[in-house]
Amino acid sequence: MKTLVENDRLAEGSTVATIGMFDGVHLGHALLVNFLNVEAKAAGKQSLVITFLHHPRQVLHPESPLKLIMPLEERLHHIEAQGPDLLLPMEFTPELAQLDSLQFIELLRDRYGVSELVTGYNHRFGHNKGETFEDYCRHGEQLGVKVVKAPEYLGQYAPVSSTIIRGLVAAGRVVDAMHCMGRPYRLSGKVVHGFHNGRGLGFPTANVGEVDQSLLLPHNGAYAVLAHVGGQRLEGMANIGRRPTLDNGPQLSIEVNLFDFDDDIYGQAITLEFISFLRLEFKMCGLEELKQQLTLDRDNAKRILNEYLTNTQQTII
């Protein structure tokens, strides 16, 4: 696969393209890109995926920023894994937002050699959001660009969309989000110093800091997680919240207790995969009740992770 830049120009009629944000690169997106690849191969042309560097809502409505499912680098990686011939990360600008769908299709044809445009099942583009797929086809016919609609994703957890996944993650429903994405929800950061209360309770934790502020956080609570740090994949449980039992103030923290692991990992990069929600965060009566709850959480997390890893391995085999 080749990654393009915006000032690249492609030969006339050389590509079959699709365009969108692709936040989360979920199973619906995978179906779309697979359909694109089939269409391009049948036409003897290159498949081109165009993805925006920033979400249109972040550009047009910065006063109410949208939290994203994954960072750009990870999004590009997962799009590449779907096997298109070409990938173009495009800057979304207010000027681009002013183009109507006819002007936008014309831009794609003239700049990137698009002879066929594949739209998502319910995707809308162009300044006039009231236009229909039939309008796109009419504009395409006028410009000599074939416009086709990809099939609807009809998997077990349909419908699937980035908006639905954001809602699931925000509600702590990370299992449902995983089924929609085809992979666990992930957050990356760096292990930093925290309050150091966990070790005294018998549950030492790594405090995860420097998390990309543009990304969505799962709902406050405890989760069974897989942690990737120092080239290792470790099992653990994470808590997102304000630690009310320990009176650590209003600051939100992300902490992970790694099972059967006690190495010094301060300063190292860490990625958490959220496998399952365990419980909401709540204030307990004291340290003894907290220790009992953490023990229960650890037992539940180990059971859940063992089932998940066993089923994942069976699927691979």
Description:
- The structure is a single chain.
- With 317 residues, this protein is α/β, with parallel strands linked by helices.
- It folds into 2 domains: 2-149, 3-Layer(aba) Sandwich (Rossmann fold), CATH 3.40.50.620; 184-316, Elongation Factor Tu (Ef-tu), domain 3.
- Helix content is 33%, strand content 25%.
- The chain has 9 helices and 12 strands.
- The chain has helices spanning 27-43, 56-60, 72-81, 94-97, 101-112, 133-143, 162-170, 174-181, 287-316; strands at residues 2-3, 15-20, 46-52, 86-90, 114-119, 146-149, 185-192, 206-209, 221-229, 232-241, 253-258, 269-279.
- The strands form 2 sheets. The protein has a 6-stranded parallel sheet with strand order 1-4-3-2-5-6. It has a 6-stranded antiparallel beta barrel with strand order 7-8-11-10-9-12.
- Helix 5 (101-112) packs across helix 6 (133-143) and helix 7 runs antiparallel to helix 8.
- The longest helix has 30 residues, at 287-316.
- The chain is elongated.
- It starts with a strand and ends with a helix.
- The mean pLDDT is 92.
What key phrases describe this protein's structure?
Elongation Factor Tu (Ef-tu), domain 3, Rossmann fold, 6-stranded parallel sheet, single chain, 6-stranded antiparallel barrel, elongated, 25% strand, 12 strands, 317 residues, alpha/beta, 33% helix, 2 domains, 9 helices
> Low-confidence segments, ≥5 residues, pLDDT <50?
none
> Can you count the beta strands?
12
CATH architecture of the largest domain: 3-Layer(aba) Sandwich
Order of helices and strands: EEHEHHEHHEHEHHEEEEEEH
Q: How much helix is in the residues?
A: 25-40%
Tally the helices: what do you get?
9
Shape: elongated
Query: What's the assembly state of these chains?
Result: single chain
The major β-sheet equals: 6 strands, parallel
The CATH superfamily of the largest domain is known as HUPs
User: What structural class do helix, strand and pairing data support?
Assistant: alpha/beta
Q: What top-tier CATH class of the largest domain fits best?
A: Alpha Beta
How large is the radius of gyration? 23 Å
Which strand-content bin applies to the residues? 15-25%
The strands making up the biggest β-sheet line up spatially as 1-4-3-2-5-6
Question: pLDDT average, as an integer?
Answer: 92
Examine the coordinates and then state which fold CATH places here, giving the name of the CATH topology of the largest domain: Rossmann fold
Distance, first to last CA = 28 Å
Tally of structural domains:
2
